[in-house]
Write a structure and sequence with these properties.
about 240 residues; five-stranded mixed β-sheet; alpha+beta; 6 helices; three-stranded antiparallel β-sheet; 3 domains; Alpha-Beta Plaits
């Protein structure tokens, strides 16, 4: 559920144990990198376990989260062996309620429960609003402004306006749906951490020299609309065939 890039999967999460801003290792339910990064923003800076086997199981996601935190200039999450006393239990529902209210301390006793929660709480990009985690590039020589990417992007990272094509990757989850759906293969989505930035590509309003109808394009010198260009290519190919 936390691995879904567009928060499309809802359901029930396993319980977590948190003691005074320490995430306690329990069972085989290892947190994802995304979950750790969200918990980090809520004050969880340490992961503790009572056995070397637990630490081994949890080390990989913690190290991956720390790699991202390092690129963001943040301190790492520590992971260590430690005796767990005076346990305080939280269900996932209570954890997300705390996240929603931006709680900085976890001290309250709550009855354990397995309950449904709002999976949109796992939209972790909103916790790091000064950064973007992907780079989205549009090949202006290929793009035909069909609008498929804009229609499919649930994060609203791509917007075609009358005079510009706006690319805002801060909320991009890297799902690759826009790139997969692009009929011209004009979109490249790469994992790349950087400061938040937007790209504006100018959109030109031209008149087709073949059908004499107005059309939009990313190339100022285009003389024919996409429909006429494709029609001419089809006729040409039929003659060659």
């Amino acid at each position: 559920m936390s691995a879904c890039p567009v928060q499309a999967v809802a359901g029930i999460y396993p319980e977590r144990t948190i003691i005074q801003n320490q995430l306690v290792m329990k069972g085989q339910n290892i947190p994802t990198v995304i979950e750790l990064l969200i918990l980090y923003k809520q004050g969880i800076k340490e992961v503790i376990g009572e056995s070397p086997s637990q630490v081994k199981l949890w080390r990989q996601p913690v190290e991956e989260a720390n790699s991202i935190l390092n690129q963001l200039g943040e301190r790492p999450i520590s992971i260590s062996l430690k005796s767990v006393e005076d346990e305080v239990y939280y269900s996932r529902r209570e954890i997300f309620t705390l996240w929603k209210t931006e709680a900085k301390s976890v001290l309250k006793q709550v009855v354990p429960a397995r309950m449904r929660f709002n999976q949109n709480a796992l939209d972790w990009q909103k916790y790091y609003q000064d950064y973007q985690f992907t780079r989205v590039t549009i090949d202006q020589e290929k793009c035909i402004l069909c609008g498929a990417c804009q229609s499919l992007c649930q994060k609203k990272c791509l917007e075609i306006q009358d005079d510009s094509f706006m690319i805002s990757p801060q909320g991009c989850s890297g799902c690759q749906l826009c790139a997969d759906a692009c009929p011209e293969q004009a979109i490249l989505v790469e994992d790349r951490i950087s400061k938040k930035q937007e790209t504006r590509l100018p959109v030109f309003q031209n008149v087709c020299t073949a059908c004499h109808q107005p059309f939009t394009t990313l190339r100022e010198d285009d003389e024919k609309c996409v429909a006429c260009v494709k029609r001419e290519m089809y006729v040409k190919n039929r003659k060659l065939g």
